Amino acid sequence: MTDRRTLYPEIEPYENGMLDVGDGHSLYWERVGTPGAKPAVMLHGGPGAGCSANHRRQWDPTCYDVLLFDQRGCGRSTPFASLEANTTWDIVADIERLRIMCGHEKWQVFGGSWGSTLALSYAQTHPERVSELILRGIFLCGQSELDWLYAYGASELYPEEWEAFVAHARERSDGDLLQTYIDLLDDPDPAVRRAAARAWNRWEGVTVTLLPEDDTIDHMAEGDNAVATARIETHYFRHKCWLDDGQLLRDADRLRGIPGVIVQGRHDCCTPPAAAWALQKAWPEVDLQIVPDGGHLFTEPGITDGLVRATDRFATVAR
Questions:
Q1: pTM here?
Q2: Which residues are catalytic?
């Protein structure tokens, strides 16, 4: 069996800064790799999760010039946890602003989970600006995908965690689960907001970890970004990510001619393979790779292997 690829060594940005994108928002950005090399942009998940140091390590730094940024309201971007002027299409416009700032004609667009939703939205809006798409854990923001996470589906695999997730909301209301969490996250009492964020993010942490990873789940539930992630996710999901149901499949013909790779875990409980399969049928040029022992996170060995091989594959393709 061929040895699996791992992340490239730790690397620090060679440049970083803040970009004023209007509407009161300023985005943190950083660039890693080799200035003037093949350009790429990394779109993080969530919505609201922010970038990490390990995200930088998915490309060969001698071959790529990679821009990473924290999307509106999260990470080091300001104002923190803001929902104002924070939509899918605002971020699509931000990606274009960042491309122009960097001076790239086009770039490789790389995104996982919510980042895949954003990558597809950007590529369907600006196909002429995309050299390749590398996607992981496809999330099309369809009603069936939201129902899987917040109505029926994942609940059957983790019944004890689902019961706790629902119970936290039911202490406040017997109404709509999503709306109840939105209300809790908007509560004037910081303790109520933190407790709601903890419950919301713990449920997500359980679904994204294939094997028990208490440290990962605890970090998601208790980390500095916990309230921002929960507030921004519920905000996006309430509005169905400002996408028509089925829009990203409907408009997949706009991706024709763009090379692409999808790395999808077979046992991904957060974004199950059905969405990746549907996208591959709508965009037959894409190389869909289903990792037999893979789940959702990019740090899992099989998922890391697929992503690093994909970036290596395109490293020498003309910019």
A1: 0.95
A2: 113, 268, 296
